[in-house]
Amino acid sequence: MSNYPRDEFDKVPETSSRQGVHRERLIPSRSSGLGLIITVGVLALVLGVAAYFVLPRLGIGADDGDRAPAADSSASVESPEPQASEPGQSTEPTPSATAAPSAEPAPTPSPTPSPAPAAVDRSQPVVVLNGSGIGGLGASVSARLGADGWTTAQVANWGGQPLQGSIIFYGTEDQLPNAQELSQLLGIPTVVQSPDFTLVTVVPGPGFQ
Questions:
Q1: For residue 182, which of 136, 154, 151 has the smallest C-alpha distance?
Q2: How many C-beta atoms lie closer than 10 Å to residue 200's C-beta?
Q3: Which label site among 73, 104, 132, 193 has the fewest CB atoms less than 10 Å from its CB?
Q4: Whole-prediction pTM value?
């Protein structure tokens, strides 16, 4: 036991559950304030989580974002209404001022007339060379030419390589009509141009009739 004199704090009933007057005021106030702060913090956290995860699923707050594109899409689909024409005004489209004029058909070029073929000139002399090996055949051909109005310049034998058939030679282009005329007259289809011949030359060969 202490030797200090007794004061008002020593006058505590023995049945009281209090352990000190100063302890009774401090401990309850501190514990109740801390519990309130923890409770408020937990509620705020729960509300934040609910607002972040639950509200978007319920469609709250997403109406404005969803409706705006729908309005834009509907506006883009709508076609502009035609303006009403005034009475007496034609509704036919006006042709564009920049429209290209109708193309006129180009004039067809007239064909260039081809030069007329040279006429047959029977006054040009003809040479007859017998290439058949049959005597007198050259003179017989010359007689046939004379009967058709041709002039024979020479009748002789063929001095070149042996022939397989009859040939008519001519030297220049202006002699071609005479060579073709003689080809039809004598029945010799082979007509050859050669600079070695200055006159149209008929060479009846083997088998000539």
A1: 151
A2: 24
A3: 104
A4: 0.46
